[in-house]
Design goal:
Its EC number is 1.2.1.8. It contains 16 helices and 20 strands. A seven-stranded mixed β-sheet has the order 14-15-16-13-12-17-18, with helices on both faces. The chain has a six-stranded mixed β-sheet with strand order 9-8-7-10-11-19, sandwiched between helices. 39% of the residues lie in helices and 20% in strands. The longest helix has 20 residues, at 43-62. It has two domains: 9-251 and 456-474, 3-Layer(aba) Sandwich (Aldehyde Dehydrogenase, Chain A, domain 1); 255-438, Aldehyde Dehydrogenase, Chain A, domain 2 (3-Layer(aba) Sandwich), CATH 3.40.309. With 487 residues, the chain is α/β, with parallel strands linked by helices. The chain binds nicotinamide-adenine-dinucleotide. Residues 148-152, 175, 177-178, 207-208, 211-212, 215, 225-228, 231, 234-235, 249-252, 283, 384, 386, 412, 452, 457 line the site of nicotinamide-adenine-dinucleotide (NAD).
Length: 487
């Protein structure tokens, strides 16, 4: 098995195996080959990991922030030095093209480690004047935090969650998606090599039941989940029943609005990035592409030409743009949405097929697919597909498109392409979405807060915002005069 790790779990600085857990086979989605055999965590291991984290956390929180930051920055350097090897692991685990994982996966996790490692020493409370007396606030760690990952950006998710958590003085137990369990273990090795004390970053494998037991554990203070809206609702309710902190990064059906005056090549580039990157498995994808009538023909012409040039195939080949979907059930789900689109009367403008490729007969491939003449009420315009399926919708004016763009239960992202910057800002200010772009799409630098409005989530990852979500304020009133008591 070509990607078998030393063991399934990483607890208190060591790899740990326990074959009593639920078997979890790791499948390379390009071929169907089993590349590793792991086991989900048992209740005993869950408790062991949480106890280890709880024991290690107070000494870590007591370090000077600059000392915590130094370890994170060292980990960023080690992660970058191992980029090629971890990118390949990520491609085997997810099926995403190596040309993406080489630049967007371990690299993005390293950015998070570097950013929070650098910024944490300047993250302080405030001093409040009270007319002689004063108050100050402290930003204190929460304790043991649980990170639960989705399968589309496994090491990025582990980095985006653990870096601010650790920087702020917490310990973390990370449970990767059962579909993509491998790279979080590599991150655990990186942290260990960088000098992170044992117990502060632990990895437990498993399905939703392991995540749920972690959220219930009395020593856990917070959960940060990336996943679908239904899972997010369950986990948020469970965290709420214990009054625990929670961050939810969930799904979307985001609008990408292209006005007549947009630069056509840039708008097409944005639409391609916002629909086909990572084989369409990106939460913030702009899957409802609203195109104003005056630019529609030109836009579709260039979109078609550039989509034809997308090379689908062996994700380990650096020339390939698009790999398979993460597994067969996701492939089947995407295919069923394509069928629904056709049945509802949308025009299948491009793709829609399931390619058969020699040597990859067991792969979960779907062609990049474009539907035109899509209307707002169609299922493919309302539900998150999470695959390479773009819906192109027509619009006439600004007011109309803003109302239609907002007519969704989701609110993760939105984008606008126009050369009229006044219009761009005006439209963005009216869109009900947490992460927006003007004249680009889907860029998520770690410096910029990321997260959703409405059903797309609560809390934020990245930026300074994430540090607020991994810490709690303690207010301290300091009296400098007499205590004025009526009694
Ligand atoms: P999912 O909801 O099926 O699973 C997400 C994670 O939650 C997995 O690790 C799973 O094991 C765990 N889980 C499931 N049930 C649980 C429970 N009851 N308690 C605790 N943990 C539980 O999502 P997925 O299919 O892995 O990922 C795709 C979804 O994630 C899409 O909807 C996508 O939009 C979303 N996503 C959001 C973001 C974001 O930042 N907003 C990023 C990537 C993906």
């Amino acid at each position: 098995m070509r990607a078998q790790p030393k063991a399934s779990h990483f607890i208190n600085g060591r790899f740990v195996e326990d074959k009593a857990g639920k078997p979890l086979d790791v499948i390379y989605p390009a071929t169907g080959e089993i590349i590793a055999k792991l086991f989900g965590a048992t209740p005993a291991l869950i408790d062991q990991a949480v106890q280890a984290a709880a024991a290690a956390q107070p000494a870590w929180a007591a370090l000077k922030p600059v000392e915590r930051g130094r370890i994170l920055r060292r980990a960023a350097d080690i992660l970058r030095a191992r980029n090629a090897e971890i990118a390949e692991l990520e491609t085997l685990d997810t099926g995403k093209a190596i040309q993406e994982t080489l630049v967007a996966d371990p690299a993005s996790a390293a950015d998070a480690l570097e950013f929070y490692g650098g910024i944490i020493a300047g993250f302080n409370g405030e001093m409040i004047e009270l007319g002689g007396s004063y108050a100050y606030t402290r930003r204190e760690a929460l304790g043991v935090c649980v990170g639960i990952g989705a399968w589309n950006y496994p090491i990025q998710g582990a980095g985006w969650k653990s870096a601010p958590a650790l920087a702020a003085g917490n310990a973390m137990i990370f449970k990767p998606s059962e579909n993509t369990p491998l790279s979080a273990l590599a991150l655990a090795e990186v942290y260990k090599e960088a000098g992170l004390p044992d117990g502060l970053f632990n990895v437990l494998q498993g399905f939703g039941d392991v995540g749920s037991q972690l959220v219930d554990h009395p020593l856990v203070a917070k959960v940060s989940l990336t996943g679908s809206v239904p899972t997010g609702k369950r986990v948020l309710a469970q965290a709420g029943s214990h009054m625990k902190h929670a961050t939810m990064e969930l799904g979307g059906k985001s609008p990408l609005i292209i006005f007549d005056d947009a630069d056509v090549e840039n708008a097409v580039g944005g639409a391609l990035l916002g629909n086909f990157y990572s084989t369409g498995q990106v939460c913030s994808n702009g899957t409802r592409v609203f195109v104003q009538s005056g630019i529609k023909d030109q836009f579709l012409d260039r979109l078609t030409t550039r989509t034809k040039a997308i090379r689908l195939g062996d994700p380990l080949d650096p020339e390939i743009h698009l790999g398979p979907l993460v597994n067969a059930s996701q492939r089947d789900k995407v295919v069923s949405y394509i069928e629904k689109g056709k049945a509802e009367g949308a025009t299948l403008h491009f793709g829609g097929g399931v390619p058969q490729m020699q040597g990859f007969e067991g792969g979960c491939f779907v062609e990049p697919t474009i539907f035109t003449n899509v209307t707002d009420d169609m299922v493919i315009a309302r539900e998150e597909i999470f695959g390479p399926v773009m819906a192109v919708l027509d619009f006439k004016d600004e007011e109309e498109v803003v109302a239609r763009a907002n007519d969704t239960e989701f609110g993760l992202s939105a984008g606008v392409f126009t050369k009229d910057l006044s219009r761009a800002h005006r439209v963005i200010s009216q869109l009900k979405a947490g992460t927006c772009w003007i004249n680009t799409y889907n860029l998520a630098p770690v410096e910029m807060p990321f997260g959703g409005f409405k059903q797309s989530g609560v809390g934020r990852e990245n930026g300074l915002a994430a540090l607020y979500h991994y810490s709690q304020i303690k207010s301290v009133y300091v009296e400098t005069g007499k205590v004025d008591s009526p009694y």
